[in-house]
Design brief:
The structure is a single chain. By secondary structure, the protein is of the alpha+beta class. Helix content is about 20%, strand content about 35%. It contains twelve helices and 39 strands. α6 packs across α7. It is globular and about 70 Å long. It comes from Plantactinospora alkalitolerans.
Length: about 700
Amino acid sequence: MNTETTAAPVAKRVPAERTHHGDTVIDEYAWLAAKDDPETIAYLTAENAFTEQSTARLGTLRETLFNETKGRTKETDLSVPTRKNGYWYYTRTVEGEQYGIHCRRAAPDGETDPPMPDDGTPIPGEQILLDGNALAEGHDFFALGAFDISPDGRWLAYSTDFDGDERFTLRVKDLATDEVLGDEVPDTFYGSAWSADGSTLFYLTVDESWRPYRVWRHTVGTPADADEIIYQEEDERFWVGVELTRSEKFIVIEAHSKVTSEVRVIPAANPTGAPAVIAPRRQGVEYSIEHHGHRFLVLHNDGAEDFALAYTSADAPGDWVPMIEHTPGTRLEAVDAFANHIVVSLRTAGLTGIRVLPVGSTDSYDIDFPEPLYSVGLDSNPEYQTNTIRLHYASLITPDSIFDYDLVTRAMVLRKRKPVLGDFDPAGYEQHRDWALADDGTRVPISLVCRAGTPRDGSAPCVLYGYGSYEASMDPWFSIPRLSLLDRGVVFAVAHIRGGGEMGRRWYETGKMLSKKNTFTDFVAAARHLVKAGWTSSDRLVARGGSAGGLLMGAVANLAPDAFAGIVAQVPFVDPLNSILDPSLPLTVTEWEEWGNPLADAEVYGYMKSYSPYENIAPVDYPAILAVTSLNDTRVLYHEPAKWIARLRATAPQGSYLLKTEMGAGHGGPSGRYDSWKEEAFVAAWILDRFGLAS
């Protein structure tokens, strides 16, 4: 390996043989998977030094972009307080501090809009529950996994991660005394649930493949080695979650694979009870439950591709009685129960929506929203006995907004809109919905935002973002850092490609398994359409995506390198075949229902090999590529982009390839808000440089 920073690092080649289904492949960079090998760390360090040297001339621009984000952000701020059992709960941020401060204050009867200043003025009666800045002191990384207050408000269960590997240490704090108890449990996962009386805490741990598979029962005030396993999932395709229903009547244990689920419940008033199954798992049937009085609401896809809503008895679960029949094209995504209303989150025609079902009435209705492009969903709604729900709303030009919606009067009140300091005016920007035509005739939606009056003559630079996996929808969202690009004339576009969930379950099904290539060809079709429609030109277009969207970036680099001037791939899943062939790696077995099982199926093996970015690098002219990863990522391991960049350099050495590795972070990158702004400024400066806008 050449460690000179005057030239790109050259990774050594150590041939490693892989044979499956009669196909032998030599992977000369497999050695980079050895995280503890000093040579691996030396190589990553050399890549970081080369990237820093190669982008040093952008240092002033990076600082400018960081300061623009900082200058537009209200650094000392307060979230909209949420009422729960006699308290207002909220989070404060303080100028200069990386993390939020979680607080509460007593909520007098009848108080509906608490007078709480958001300028840092001391709030009378405030109790600091958890200060992320104090917890993070002395650490380069900090993340919370659980933050769960017992129903009586006495106990706080919280968990911390200081490495980015998503292994959390769980603790319990007595909010009456501010004492952290000796109840300490290492290596826990996200998710927890309290019993009704707060005496018992349920939590999760993972297996060697990072799969949450055990639910534990812990009695407050006792050592962790006395905890009991109350459920263990043996099928390696299934993950397990645990939560308390909004009604606080049931502990819910959900086991789910990519295509199948099974739910168990324990009465919250009887935490030592055995979990009872709502409906036994059936391959291909997904369902989730919500408690509502004498019944469980069941959201399911049994004979309902886009899901239907039913209910069953809470005392003796059995047959599912229909409530909302299946409507093709209207994807029901979640159900939330309140004492007098049922609220369904859905999507249709590529947009999210909210449907309200008053209890005892057939007069259901959908809430209307003013913009042609937007994203809406339920925000924090912990109280069951309420006629008001809280909504989160945003669009590409409307900052994140919190509304309270009266379910009886249907009045909507804006509680807070994320401040954007400076001269920001939504009227100075435009958002559009456009459609590309895929190779098979499918219309693919594209969401766009730009400065008002941006020319449509192909001269504007453009960033095209995509994801396209796991039925995840990239609904319109607002971004303060994005304004720095828009104000420099850049168009920002999102391709809502197959594999995502924007257009319903079929949209997802036709972008996975042996139809996965639709995801990539849809994105290329979107890129070609933007050029044809005059939004940009191919030499002014940068593609961006992360994680499974990073797989997309690698695939389209091979599929259509001429379509892009640059590609940003963040924590990219660019070596999918090697990873999915190894069941010992985190997530692999659970992923077989998303990608297929190349170990067992020769057709899947061949299909994945035909699109794997790492497997298909060729001696062609690639666009400039920036890959960003994290050493402690447990979802997409750092060695995937490291191997990818190494092979790109060896195979197509005329290209420009940079690798940046966060040496102390995980899948989400840097954890502090200022650090994340700096990371975004780094990427944005690299993008602007591709457009000749770095000066």
